Amino acid sequence: MISLTDIQKILRGNIAVDEPMAKYTWMKVGGPADFYIEPMDKDDLKAIVAYFHTHHYSWMILGRGSNVLVSDEGIRGAVINVEQALSKIFIEGGLVIAEAGVRLTKFVDFCIQNEFVGVEMLAGIPGTIGGAVAMNAGAHGGEIADHLVEVEVIRNGHTQQVKNENAQFTYRHSGFDQDVVLSAAFKLQRGDKEPLSVKRRELILRRNETQPLEFPNLGSMFKNPPNTFAAKLIEQAGLKSKRVGDAQISEKHANFIINLGNAKAEDVVRLIDLVKRTVYQNSGVMLELEVKMIGFSSSAKEAA
Prior knowledge:
Blueprint: H1 4-10, E1 14-20, E2 32-38, H2 42-54, E3 59-62, E4 68-70, E5 75-81, E6 89-92, E7 95-99, H3 104-113, E8 116-117, H4 129-134, E9 138-139, E10 142-143, E11 148-155, E12 158-163, E13 180-186, E14 189-190, H5 193-210, H6 230-236, E15 243-244, E16 247-249, E17 257-259, H7 265-283, E18 292-294, H8 298-303
Parallel strand pairs: 2-5, 3-5, 4-18
Antiparallel strand pairs: 1-2, 6-7, 7-13, 8-14, 9-10, 11-12, 11-13, 15-16, 16-17
Helix pairs in contact: 3-5
């Protein structure tokens, strides 16, 4: 069994014990993790991941917590936040290199200021490069994989480069589920700064107008099925504003579940189950979750 003292011998960064995950998820729900870790830099991250790997200790990477639902019981093992350790973004050999902890807003702004075209659709998405690559995030018909050349990861304890064509990118999915994303390299076309800035502002305004950003939420809860939209199916099923505890289907956007103040993960799970059952009964479409469920039993995950 690994102790706090054991970890402190390896780690140079910060560590907290029994840290509530509600503090680090955009939904503001989730019980405590046994250990919450913020490595100081890339070497610190590699050292602690290698230590956990060698000792077969359970751990996971957390970005900004914008697409994860953590159970009320919390997470057994360690949660590692990489925003401090992996925060660099730069241009090298004509490629834009962004480390995994870089926020998408910073990434988009950097590209626009350096007159690179192609990632404006990510403007306003509250995540990090690492999380966006791992789930192949996207919006407005584009995906982060569209301009990605290669990804640096820790896989099976070793650092390696994975080319785009070997990354198994599909809709909101990649082959990096078991890896630690360290950085990503992008090949982007050149463009003019002014129209790019205008487009960025327009996209952010559109998100503000159409999404319930005034409430804690996890973004799009369900993946869009082929040839339709999850929000449309949920609305057609008469589920807008449905509520379980303090978890509610948004009146502004039906594919968002919001926290009205004191929602529990259990409330969200019950609402997810209601949506899936009702939409299936109404349309014959079984919705698939876009968010990741962390700390739940296998049966709870399958039910949701």
